[in-house]
Amino acid sequence: MAAKVGTKGQVVVEKEIRDRLGIKPGWMAIQRLVDDHVELYFVPPEHNRSLMGGLKKYIKGGEVPSDEDWHEVKERAWTIAAEEKMGVRERQP
Fold first, then answer.
1. Which single residue of 6, 40, 53, 77 could bond 58 by disulfide (Cβ 3.0 to 4.6 Å)?
2. Are residues 40 and 69 in the same domain?
3. Residues 42 and 1 in one domain
């Protein structure tokens, strides 16, 4: 697959390649010169979604805790997850 270099030095990554790699608008393209060619690496942007949903099963009553309680809930969730991973605790349904 060949592409022309634009007047500003831009090159289009073919759609087939973008689709196969899952590249979306907003991703960062990192360029690296290796000998006589260029390597491109694509990095997705950081997500802006909340991660609190991952701890939902550890929150009593399904409510989001107040700021004062959040640290305690987070620590309890990490402790339970670590115990499950180490086989000390069985995973709860």
1. 77
2. no
3. yes
